[in-house]
Amino acid sequence: MKTAFQLFFTFFKIGAFTLGGGYAMLSMVEKAVVDKKKWIASDEFWDMIAIIQSLPGVFAVNTALYVGHKIDGRKGAIAAMLGAIIPSIVIILLLATVFREYRDLPVVERIFKGIRPCVVALILAPSLRMIKSAKITWKTAIIPIATVLLIWLCKISPAIVILAAIAGSLAYALVMQKKAKQAMERKEDQA
Amino acid sequence: MIYLQLLWVFIKIGVLGFGGGYAMLSLIQHEVVENYAWMNTTEFADMVAISQMTPGPISINMATYVGYTAGGFPGSLLASFALCLPSIIMVYLIIRLFMNKKSGTLMANLLKGLKPAIAGLIFAAGLSMMNGQNFVQIGKGENNISIVICVLAFVASYFFKANPILLIVLSGVVGFFVY
């Protein structure tokens, strides 16, 4: 039980004090779990982060569940997850209550009139940076463009677009695998 | 009824939300603004700003906020729990069934293939928020401050990787003095 409590408080602290999302959190988790508590070895930690990163869902929650389970089984997983999300829930509930009460005040409205276009910029910028890092060429640019048009203009559910993208991505991976295999066999035949 | 809807919406987002909190924006927006109309587009923008500025995972912040708006205190707990539920099952399966590097590589390849679509998804969420409600008096000649704020924030974020919280605070200050 003691370990579960420690896990809860470790992730509670991380959840309460990390600004800037999943990746900012990661170095704090590493510091707490690998350096300070020595619960997990460094290489094992990064191996499992590599797997967790490709899962859907909340990255911080996935990490908490995995680390928690590794250290203290099911009990640890739930303790770590609750620690990671409770600060968020408490802070947002407080803010939402206050904000919904005062959002019609002229001062608040003026401030948020300035903030809203900034939020739009903060959404557009990382998506373009992502396109850059995904090394998209003129040929593959059709994918993000089609996605944008389907969702923004045709109002198609993003869920459907994601499912189609998963199917396409899997098919592509399988075709590439098959091609590689055939090329190998051809080489063997020639030899 | 609203609780069932919240549960279903956030379980779906937990299953399909590849690529982090921002990638979920489009999914959340479609359900919350267009499908169920729990919020209008300005409320949605305000919620994103608040979720971005507060500590903790942005998607949990958004789920709590949406849940609270749609279904009060129980709604907020339910939405956050629903978002975590697929994670609990998936991580458990990964630990039980195939916790090895090979399947990890398969998932990583899948995510790599999804990346261009995810980028498009996030961009679409931004475009959908670019409207007359969030951009004050767009195209009315002298008052194009919204566009100026958006362009400056974009340049600061894209080219100079400026801190998003700082940018939100600064544009709030600008809004206070200008409007």
Keywords:
heterodimer, A: 191 residues, mainly alpha, 84% helix, B: 179 residues, 7 helices, 78% helix, 0% strand
Short description:
The complex is a heterodimer of chains A (191) and B (179). By secondary structure, chain A is an all-alpha fold. Helix content of chain A is 84%, strand content 0%.
Descriptive report:
The complex is a heterodimer of chains A (191) and B (179). In chain A, 84% of the residues lie in helices and 0% in strands. With 191 residues, chain A is an all-alpha fold. Chain A folds into 3 domains: 2-102, no CATH class; 107-135; 137-191, no CATH class. The mean pLDDT of chain A is 90. With 179 residues, chain B is mostly helical. Chain B folds into 2 domains: 2-132, no CATH class; 135-179, no CATH class. Chain B has helices at residues 2-16, 21-35, 41-53, 58-96, 101-129, 145-158, 164-178. At the A-B interface, helix 1, helix 3, helix 4, helix 5 and helix 6 of A face helix 1, helix 2, helix 3, helix 4 and helix 5 of B.
